[in-house]
Amino acid sequence: MSFTISSVRHRLYHLLFDLNTPSGRRFEGLCALFALLSVVIIFVESGLGTQYHLTFDEWHLFVWLELGVTLIFTLEYLLRVFCWPNPRTYVFSFWGIIDLATILPLYVMWLWPEISLSYVFAWRAMRAIRVLRILKLLRFMPSLRVFWQAIVSARHQLIIFYSFIAIVMIIFGALMYLIEGPKYGFTTLNASVYWAIVTVTTVGYGDITPHTPLGRIVASVLILIGYSVIAIPTGLITTHMSSAFQNRQLRKCTNCQQAGHEHSARFCNHCGTRLP
Fold first, then answer.
1. With contact defined as beta carbons under 8 Å apart, do 130 and 102 qualify?
2. One-character DSSP codes across 150-188
3. Closest Cα to residue 186, out of 207, 155, 201?
4. Which keywords label this protein (predicted)?
C-alpha cells in the first residue's frame, strides 16, 4: 500500500509541478487559463448588478459557477499538498499561500455571511495572480525566453535605476513639501512624494498642483527629468534582448549548420553534436 501511495504521489508531483514534461506544462497552462476564466466570471457577475451578487439567497448560475471554481481549486490545492515531498514547505511558500487564498472566499462567506460583498469580490479577483504561473513556462518558449533572459540580465541596472528614481522622488517630494506646504495641498511628505511620482511619469492628475513660482520651477525640472528617464528601462531591456538574439545566431552547429542555439547549450538540438 505504501508503495502504491508513493507511486501516486510521484506521478501527481510530475503532473502538478514538473514543467520539464509536456503533461506538466499543459496542466500549468490549463490552471492559468482556468484562473483567468474565473476572474472573467467575477467581472461579468459584478457588471450585471447587485441583484446577481453572490448573496446565497438564491442558488442562481453565478453561485453554482463559484461553487464549481472553488471545488476545483480546493481539489488542486489538496493534491499539491499531498504530492509535495514536504507539505509544510509548500503550504508556507508563495504559491502555496496564493493557492490557499484563492479557495477561501466562498468558505469565508459561508462562515461569516455578514461580510461586505465588496471585500469578497476584490478577494476573488485576486485569483488573477494565479495566471502569473504561466511565467514559469517562459523558459520553454524561445522568443519569450529571450525576453525573460534580457530582463534577468538587466536586473542589476534596473534595480539601480529604480533606486535612483526613488531617491529623486523623495528629494523632490521633500522640496515641494517645504516650498508649497499644506496651504496648497502638500499636507504630508507622503502626499508630496505621491505628487512627485505622478509628475515624473507625466500623468499629471491635477489633484495636487504647485502655486508658488519656486514650486512651479521645481515641477518643471521634475517634468523634464521624467521625459529624460522614461525611456531608460526600455533601452536597457532592448539592448540585452539584442545581445541575446546575437548570441543565439552565433551558436551554430559545425555538423549540420543548425543555428539559434541557446548560449548555455552544449549539444546541438538537431543532431546532438557537441557545440563549439
1. yes
2. HHHHTHHHHHHHHHHHHHHHHHHHHHHHHHT-GGGT--S
3. 207
4. Ion channel, Ion transport, Membrane, Potassium, Potassium channel, Potassium transport, Transmembrane, Transmembrane helix, Transport, Voltage-gated channel
For position 242, which CATH number holds?
Answer: 1.10.287.70
d(CA 25, CA 10): 16
Strand partners, 264: none
Same-domain status, 111 and 21: yes
| Number of other residues whose CB lies within 10 A of the CB of residue 122 | 12
Domain housing 158: 141-276
From residue 240, give the alpha-carbon distance in Å to each of 103, 153, 246, 247: 40, 7, 10, 11
In the DSSP assignment, the letter for residue 275 is P
Residues 107 and 230 both lie in one domain: no
**What would the pLDDT profile of 56-102 be if each residue is shown by its tens digit?**
455 567 777 878 888 888 888 888 888 888 888 888 888 888 888 88
Selection from 263, 29, 264 nearest residue 136 by Cα: 29
pLDDT at 254: 64
Who has greater pLDDT, 247 or 208? 208
Residues 78 and 171 both lie in one domain: no
> What is the model's pTM?
0.55
Q: What's the count of helices (H) and strands (E) in the chain, helices before strands?
A: 11, 0
